Amino acid sequence: MSQDKKRDAIIEAALKRFAHFGVAKTTMTEIGNDLSLSKASLYYYFPDKLSLYAAVLKHISEATEKKDEAIITSKEIPLEAIHTYLDIRTDFIIKYHNILEYLKTYTPLTMPPELQELFSYFYSRELSRITAIIEKGKQQSVFHISDSRKTAELFFDFLEGFRYSFITRSGNFFPDKKQFLTILKKEKEFASIFFKGLS
Amino acid sequence: MSQDKKRDAIIEAALKRFAHFGVAKTTMTEIGNDLSLSKASLYYYFPDKLSLYAAVLKHISEATEKKDEAIITSKEIPLEAIHTYLDIRTDFIIKYHNILEYLKTYTPLTMPPELQELFSYFYSRELSRITAIIEKGKQQSVFHISDSRKTAELFFDFLEGFRYSFITRSGNFFPDKKQFLTILKKEKEFASIFFKGLS
């Protein structure tokens, strides 16, 4: 196997274990055993579980990136597009619930650099998607705003604040799948009002 | 002095010290000394600093309650009313910054019962104010919504989420007065869009 292929195989094996047993309960040894890989060889690619975890997160979030973007872009009506965006995000969380749950280990202040970097990439990707949706409404003369990016930032700040506060208040537990559907319902109501107002 | 008057005097003395030196740096002994009160006498009214702190919070938030409500109610245009509501809230935080800073000691999960009770009172008061504003818009046929209370809850969830996330992300420090003005600016933009939409 080439180095790249070996690296991909490790990520795939880790993904399976993380998804099935959770991240906390999975050891590097188990992942190495799954691939009949020596410890030295495994650690050559990923010096610790955290760096492997970050690689898995990157892998799963990039896997459907283009497809997701195409689906969102295909929606001509901004409100439909933003609801689709929210649906896709929640589908992702529910699909990889066991993997994402591990993020609860960290707060924004204790987040290690490997994950911080990833999160700032996610942040800019989400923000571009929302900006594109709002810009579409502006181009269609449905939205009368001066700066699509700034409006998207405001939308995202309040959306993220709501999610973050919901997740933090739920204590040491990551919300379960059903709770994420409750969050989604509120997010959609919020998006509808944000786009259309109360009148 | 009657028991009630003595209690009020203790609250006033604590308020002065808390506002001037901060809560963490103020001791019960100092407050007792200010009033030439014996330790036993002081502890008869307030068994610990936390119960005195809760009493001070209650006192300052009730002091202008009726006046604030009258000002908000006098605004006929819902958007003006909600901006005034947000102004009043920020004025309060800035005025009592030294006292409120101490709340940063707790998270929603470690909040002691004395403060939890107070916060659920604040929560219902804020929610009534927002509901009244939205209901006014509904009565004026400016807002076309079915349930003012539910709409107010949604507004408040996202508003509080934004504030909470801002305060938490700022680490172990309570945001300074200038930062609260930045928060206020975003809150007003948010309220404008929530009420009027993007069109």
- What CATH architecture of the largest domain in chain A would you give? Orthogonal Bundle
* Helix proportion range of chain A: over 70%
Number of helices of chain A: 10
Strand content of chain A: under 5%
InterPro entries (chains A, B): DNA-bd_HTH_TetR-type_CS, Homeodomain-like_sf, HTH-type_Tx_Regulator, HTH_TetR, Tet_transcr_reg_TetR-rel_C_sf
DNA-binding region (chains A, B): 27-46
GO molecular function (chains A, B): DNA binding
Protein name (chains A, B): HTH tetR-type domain-containing protein
What does this structure look like?
2 copies of one chain form a homodimer. The first copy, chain A, is mostly helical and 199 residues long. Chain A folds into 2 domains: 3-55, Orthogonal Bundle (Arc Repressor Mutant, subunit A), CATH 1.10.10.60; 64-196, Tetracycline Repressor, domain 2 (Orthogonal Bundle), CATH 1.10.357.10. Chain A has helices at 3-21, 28-34, 39-45, 49-63, 65-74, 78-95, 97-100, 113-139, 148-169, 177-196. The model of chain A has no long low-confidence stretch (mean pLDDT 94). The interface between A and B is medium-sized, with 34 and 34 residues. Chains A, B: Residues 4-64 form the HTH tetR-type domain. Chains A, B: It comes from Flavisolibacter tropicus. Chains A, B: This is HTH tetR-type domain-containing protein.
Quickly describe the structure:
Chains A, B: GO terms for molecular function: DNA binding. 2 copies of one chain form a homodimer. Chain A has 199 residues and is mostly helical.
Question: Any key phrases for this structure?
Answer:
homodimer; 199 residues; mainly alpha; Arc Repressor Mutant, subunit A; Tetracycline Repressor, domain 2; 2 domains; elongated; DNA binding (chains A, B); HTH tetR-type domain-containing protein (chains A, B); DNA-bd_HTH_TetR-type_CS (chains A, B); Tet_transcr_reg_TetR-rel_C_sf (chains A, B); HTH-type_Tx_Regulator (chains A, B)
